[in-house]
Design a protein that fits this description.
375 residues, Butyryl-Coa Dehydrogenase, subunit A, domain 1, Butyryl-CoA Dehydrogenase, subunit A, domain 2, Butyryl-CoA Dehydrogenase, subunit A, domain 3, 3 domains, seven-stranded mixed beta sheet, two-stranded antiparallel ribbon
Length: 375
């Protein structure tokens, strides 16, 4: 896979960076986060106009049909700007699942709406007792006539309050099958409880009490649930890796500018060799993270499932470790100011810390990597 930016990719990256620098400023982002909003409709519509939301959606459904390399370009820029909006859960993960497993009717109804920003779809697969193991889902789907009745609880649903529908896992009654359902937000019996996360985003818990859905809500076949969910998670991991690399890149830039202006003993901090070495270590970690983001993007085109899982888990762990190192170093190099809310360094540190928890933490992916290698 060629990661040298094409002319179109470079134009898209430049447009996104200009938009973030001029319109999606740090002050605007922080104001939105503190008001409990992780979805600004004006920003969301602008991202749709720029083609971000429909980047990997096939052209037949209103998208651009781009591949993982272009997705990396976009996510890297979104990471630099710490963009709050649900691009990854809806424009990346949900779109990938519906494109791979959705019925013709589901694709016609939802993919163009996702690409245009008209509708937001997110994944609801975590439960209080399952951690990162979706095969342990306890939510149940009872067959009822031509449809299903779903009951159970889902936790930490990424951007759950902003979603118009959920791709939700449930165990089909009378079998061991974990099915995936497309459940509208306004379904009777579905309650949503939203709350903030430490990085300024929003999550939600879902409570489903006898939520009736038609058979057409089933994504793929009943036995396809885990495979379909896996497609979305894999695309999400690759997106998070690119986002993390972009955030580290921007954080290093911010830290370098601070060291160049802050004076100590009549000299800028950047002139002290010990601090130069620490900046060099941060840069090395960022380059390592970016290289592994390339690996994650390449994994999406890997036909061998075991190799794909190995590449994605390795990338996720490496980027998470690099992000924690770069974030901690940046806070320390800012001194006491790094611990305050006055500067943006703390926001980047929090986001990089949360990247480890999303879509499987390092312990989970190290175990998965070991299982694949052992097999």
């Amino acid at each position: 896979m060629d990661f040298t930016y094409s002319e179109e990719q470079q134009m898209l990256a430049d447009s996104l960076r200009r938009f973030i620098d001029t319109e999606y400023t740090f002050e605007a982002r922080r104001k939105s986060a503190r008001q409990g909003e992780s979805l600004d409709r004006g920003v969301w519509n602008k991202l749709a106009e720029m083609g971000v939301l429909g980047l990997t959606v096939p052209a037949d459904f209103g998208g651009f049909g781009e591949g993982p390399a272009s997705q990396l370009v976009v996510q890297r820029e979104l990471g630099r700007g710490l963009v709050l909006e649900p691009v990854t859960p809806s424009g990346v993960m949900a779109a990938a699942i519906l494109n791979a497993y959705g019925s013709d009717a589901q694709k016609q109804e939802w993919l163009p709406a996702i690409a245009s920003g008209e509708r937001i779809v997110t994944l609801a697969y975590l439960e209080p007792t399952t951690r990162y193991r979706p095969e342990s889902a306890r939510a149940s789907a009872e067959r009822s006539g031509d449809g299903y009745v779903i009951s159970g609880t889902k936790s930490v649903v990424w951007h759950g309050a902003a979603a118009d529908a959920y791709l939700l896992t449930a165990r089909v009654s009378g079998s061991n099958e974990i099915a995936l359902f497309l459940v509208p937000r306004d379904s009777k019996g579905l309650a949503v409880t939203a709350y903030p996360t430490i990085d300024g985003l929003r999550a939600a818990d879902l409570s489903l009490q006898n939520v009736a859905v038609p058979a057409s809500a089933l994504v793929g076949q009943a036995a396809d649930g885990l495979a379909a969910l896996g497609v979305g998670l894999e695309h999400g991991i690759a997106a998070l890796c690119a986002e993390g690399a972009g955030a580290m890149e921007k954080l290093i830039q911010i830290t370098g500018e601070y060291l160049g202006t802050r004076q100590q003993f009549g000299k800028p901090l950047a002139s002290f060799q010990a601090l130069q070495h620490r900046m060099a270590d941060m840069l090395v970690q960022k380059e390592l993270a970016l290289s592994m983001a390339y690996v994650a993007a390449q994994a999406l085109d890997e036909t061998d499932p075991a190799a794909r899982r190995r590449m994605l888990s390795a990338a996720k762990v490496t980027v998470a470790r690099a992000g924690r190192f770069v974030g901690q170093q940046a806070v320390q190099l800012h001194g006491g100011m790094g611990m305050t809310d006055e500067l943006s360094v703390g926001d980047y540190f929090k986001r990089l810390t949360m990247l480890d928890q999303l879509l499987g933490d390092s312990d989970y992916h190290l175990q998965r990597f070991g299982e694949v290698m052992e097999a």
